[in-house]
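In response to reviewer comment 3 from the previous cycle, which asked for concrete evidence that the modeling workflow produces usable outputs, we include below a single protein chain processed end to end. The sequence was submitted unchanged, and the resulting structure tokens are shown without manual editing.
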Amino acid sequence: MSSGLKISPQLRQKIDRELDLREKILWIGQPAPSLMILTGGTLAIALFAVPWTAFSVFWMWAALGFQLPNLSRGFQPQYLFAMFGLPFFLIGIGMLLSPFWSWRQAFQTVYIITNQRAITFEGAGKTTIRSYYPQQFNNLYRKEGNNGIGDVIIAAETTRDSDGDRQRRELGFFNIRDPREVEAILKKLVQEKR
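The workflow returned the following structure tokens.
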């Protein structure tokens, strides 16, 4: 495996168990961690969290009468009222940390192309493993940014949300370095399997 990858021992064991004896790794990579912060709406969520969290702090502070609690007088009713703002504050902290969770997720994701298939491993504890075989590469395409980092879309799935509306989700390798090279390897794999 590449020395630049930061793969946990648990995830590496899962990768080793997943690969067949006749499979040879042609390419292995991970998402660029710095870009995971800016994708999936994490930046928008974090920006929304600023006023959300500030308002929850203001709410609790106002409920306390703009003063620190004095517990020497015992438990006052306004303390309970202030505590209603605590869940909103914790949600705000969670939203503020969403870029960190996305950055961390990049180190728990590994993309592999073997001489048989493409595989995604997502997560370290409970890992989601998806295999894509060459016959599934019919709609293979690439999205590339100016910085040379992009996505290689291997497949798409259509599901229905709770309202019954159709949702399309792209599957593949996201925020990878040199997506052109990855796309070329996948296209070559398709040609070899015909």
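The helical segments are 9-18, 33-36, 42-63, 77-83, 86-96, 98-106, 179-193. We consider this sufficient to address the reviewer's concern, and the full set will be provided in the supplementary archive.
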